[in-house]
Design brief:
It contains eight helices and 16 strands. It is α+β, with helices and mostly antiparallel strands. A six-stranded antiparallel beta sheet has the order 3-4-6-7-8-9, covered by helices on one side. A two-stranded antiparallel ribbon has the order 1-2. Strands 5-16 form a two-stranded parallel sheet. Helix 6 crosses helix 8. It is globular and about 70 Å long.
Amino acid sequence: MLTRIFTPAAKPLGTVLVIAVLLQACTKDDQLHPLDRVDAMPYEKLSDYGLFSGPLNQLQPAPGVIPYDLNTPLFSDYAGKARFIYIPSGGKATYRENEVFDFPPGTILVKTFYFDNDQRDPEAGRKIYETRLLIHKKTGWEAENYLWNESQTEAFHYVAGKTIPVSWVHTDGTLRTTMYHIPNKNECKGCHNKNDMVVPIGPKARNINKNYNYADGPRNQIEEWTRLGLLTGTPPLADVPKVPVWNDASSGSLNDRARAYLDVNCAHCHTANGPANSSGLFLDYTEHNPTALGICKPPLAAGQGSGGLKYSIVPGKPEASIFIYRMNSTQPDVAMPELGRSLVHEEAVRLISDWIASLPPAGCE
């Protein structure tokens, strides 16, 4: 057909061959599954990716899309979260002990935020507000956000950010409300920042090392990803680190649960190569230097964020510790973490207060 349209008299043979190759490449690309057309992302609608089967708001993963969970997650105003990962066919993540796994280009991390109507009864329904994607392109990770419509049938690409009212019945039976903030693209980059590059936060060995209740039964996620060929370099499970569940006393000591909470909620900024590295406050789970952890450490430039207090942590005295002052605040320039919450995480404040109270006196004064 190309020969009839582009005859040698009309077009040189080289032009015919170039056009044929380009048409063949376009046709081949069009035949790819939307999840494998990374260069065409972001798409306008969440459904365009083909991440889910059936009604979109049921969040039933399509073949090749794997649900997962974390031992201790980031707090986001009591929102529930549904997490999924897609690793392209033939691709493998490389195990790293204390860092986020090294994921291949084409990987997509999916996190959907919702509020149960009644947090005491998941069967009472929920409302989904946003889905965040981290897409690993050849040039690095890109953060994209999708805002769900009122009818819960679709989510649309949204880069500007938005604050919307949400309400739910809390675990204590009270009606709670807040102005829930959906971050803009730059705010996403602000949290997912390491060495000035966008990176994931949650999928580290210590947080993935847990059972997940798959459709056909519970299995350890590290072992399952390895079995599926999605993860390579995995050591024996007994050698894989694990953090406890922050609010489950049976899963670990008070110290370890407090450190797990600070690790996932604070250490993405407060680490040696994070955006808050100039503070000298490093809250990674593997940090062992007491001063770096805030014990008897004066703030470098907290301003009003210090509340007139002298030290980040005063062992035995949570009421004298800047940590508790800032966790108890929702005031801009005081509240920590700076992004991702409009409410005080009351249960976490109690956890960190109990931890500080349990620390042996260190003679800060």
